[in-house]
C-alpha cells in the first residue's frame, strides 16, 4: 500500500471496504466519482481499469489531471452509452440519495455491471432517530452533514429500505457491511446495522 493510499483511507476510511469488494484487474465504472479518490485507490490497490461519470466540471478536470478517464454526465439521464454487462463493477458511493430517480439509476447500474457496489448513509441510524424524536429538528451526522435547506440529499433511505428495494427488484445481496464512520476511521457493525450503523455498503447482482 502506498503512502498516498494510506492517507486516502485515513480521509475516507470506508473506501477500504469498497476496494476489498473489487476483484483484481476488474473493469470498474464509478458513478458520481467526484474528484476520483476512490478511482485512485482502485487503480492503485486492485489494478482496476477505472472510468467515471461526474456532473461537476471542476471535479472532472481534477480527475483528468490525475490521469483518470472521466467524462461529464448527468446520471439522471441514464447509461445508454454502456452495453449490458460491459463492466465488472458499477459503483455508487453516497450518490443514490442525490438523484432524482435513484431506482432507475440503480437498475441501470445493475444492467451495465455484472456486480454493483452501492454505499449509502443510513437514515435509520439511532443517532438520527433520537435527534428527530427528541430535538424535533432534521438531524445531521458525519454522513449527512447538511442543513435541511442546503442539502443535496433528496431521497434519504435506510439500510432496511435498501434491502427491501433489492428484494422487490430482483437484486441479490452478495455482501452487506454496516459501518460507523468517525474521524479517519470506521467501526464495523455486525448486530442490528439498521439501528447501529450510520453507513451501509452493499455488493449486489441481478438475481
What proportion of the residues is helical, as a percent range?
25-40%
What name goes with the CATH superfamily?
A: Vaccinia Virus protein VP39
Percent of residues in beta strands: 25-35%
Distance between the termini: 35 Å
Sequence of secondary-structure elements: HHEHEHEEHEHHEEHE
Number of helices: 8
Strand order of the largest sheet: 3-2-1-4-5-8-6-7
CATH class division: Alpha Beta
Uncertain residue segments: none
Based on secondary structure, the structural category is alpha/beta
Structural domain tally: 1
Query: How does CATH name the architecture?
Result: 3-Layer(aba) Sandwich
Keywords:
207 residues; eight-stranded mixed sheet; Rossmann fold; 8 helices; 26% strand; alpha/beta
Written account of the structure:
This protein is an alpha/beta fold and 207 residues long. The chain has one domain (3-206): Rossmann fold (3-Layer(aba) Sandwich), CATH 3.40.50.150. 33% of the residues lie in helices and 26% in strands. The protein has eight helices and eight strands; from the N terminus they run ααβαβαββαβααββαβ. Helix 3 links the parallel strand 1 (27-31) and strand 2. The longest helix has 11 residues, at 102-112. The mean pLDDT is 93.
Please render the helix and strand layout as text.
Blueprint: H1 3-11, H2 14-20, E1 27-31, H3 37-45, E2 49-54, H4 57-65, E3 69-72, E4 87-93, H5 102-112, E5 113-121, H6 126-135, H7 159-168, E6 171-181, E7 186-189, H8 193-196, E8 199-206
Parallel strand pairs: 1-2, 1-4, 2-3, 4-5
Antiparallel strand pairs: 5-8, 6-7, 6-8
Amino acid at each position: 500500500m502506498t503512502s498516498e493510499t494510506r492517507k486516502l483511507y485515513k480521509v475516507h476510511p470506508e473506501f477500504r471496504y469498497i476496494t476489498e469488494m473489487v476483484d483484481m484487474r476488474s473493469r470498474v465504472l464509478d458513478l458520481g466519482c467526484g474528484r476520483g479518490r476512490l478511482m485512485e485507490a482502485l487503480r492503485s490497490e486492485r489494478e482496476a481499469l477505472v472510468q467515471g461519470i461526474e456532473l461537476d466540471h471542476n471535479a472532472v478536470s481534477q480527475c483528468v489531471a490525475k490521469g483518470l478517464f472521466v467524462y461529464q454526465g448527468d446520471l439522471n439521464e441514464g447509461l445508454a452509452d454502456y452495453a449490458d454487462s460491459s463492466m465488472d463493477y458499477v459503483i455508487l458511493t453516497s450518490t443514490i440519495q442525490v438523484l432524482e430517480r435513484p431506482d432507475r439509476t440503480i437498475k441501470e447500474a445493475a444492467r451495465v455491471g455484472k456486480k454493483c457496489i452501492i454505499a449509502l448513509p443510513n437514515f435509520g441510524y439511532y443517532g438520527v432517530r433520537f435527534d428527530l424524536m427528541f430535538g424535533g429538528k432534521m438531524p445531521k451526522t458525519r454522513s449527512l452533514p447538511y442543513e435541511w435547506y442546503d442539502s443535496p440529499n433528496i431521497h434519504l433511505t435506510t439500510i432496511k429500505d435498501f434491502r427491501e428495494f433489492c428484494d422487490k427488484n430482483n437484486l441479490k445481496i452478495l455482501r452487506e457491511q454496516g459501518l460507523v464512520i468517525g474521524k479517519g476511521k470506521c467501526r464495523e457493525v455486525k448486530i442490528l446495522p439498521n439501528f447501529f450503523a450510520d453507513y451501509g455498503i452493499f455488493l449486489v447482482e441481478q438475481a
